[in-house]
Amino acid sequence: PPPPAMGGTGNRHSKNCGTMGSENMTYWERKHMGFGTMKERLGKETVKEFDSCALGLTHAVDPVVTPEGVLYDKEHIFQCMLHQKKDVARKMKLWDEQEAKEADKAATADYSAQEERLEQFHRENHGGRTARVAGGE
């Protein structure tokens, strides 16, 4: 028998060792599965400076840091809270107006239903004459 070939198929070489089974995939398969391909390159403008406020994206004059490490400027926090307070007040006003309209509509419907029941009562008890005709006689 002939001696074994030296080097073999090369799948024991350290550069051929992959992770997650990618060593057995072709270039086309890796490209279409998203391995090693860049979808979008982010520019410098997408990353804020180290001392920038997370709300205002400007230099923090009076910095405050959360336990998670997020940096805010106190002025921007107050501005954000004030804006949220005004927004909640505006939404509450709209909600109150909507509730008042619905209550008015329900009261009108109740009044109409009561008038209809009264007319029905007069028709049944006064021989088909309405309340206005019966009251006028």
Can you offer a commentary on this structure?
It is built from three helices and two strands; from the N terminus they run αββαα. The mean pLDDT is about 80. β1 (about 65) and β2 (about 70-75) form a beta hairpin. It has about 140 residues and is mainly alpha-helical. It has a two-stranded antiparallel sheet with strand order 1-2.
Write the layout of secondary structure elements.
Blueprint: H1 27-33, E1 63-65, E2 71-73, H2 74-125, H3 131-136
Antiparallel strand pairs: 1-2
Radius of gyration: 39 Å
Number of DSSP E strands: 2
* Element pattern in H and E: HEEHH
Tell me about the biggest sheet? 2 strands, antiparallel
First and last CA, distance: 131 Å
Shape: elongated
Beta content: under 5%
Q: Give, in spatial order, the strands making up the sheet with the most strands.
A: 1-2
Poorly predicted parts: none
Structural class: mainly alpha
Q: Round the mean pLDDT to the nearest integer and report it.
A: 79
Percent of residues in helical segments?
A: 40-55%
Number of helices: 3
In short, what is this structure?
The protein has 137 residues and is mainly alpha-helical. Helices cover 47% and strands 4% of the residues.
Features:
137 residues, mainly alpha, two-stranded antiparallel sheet, 3 helices, elongated
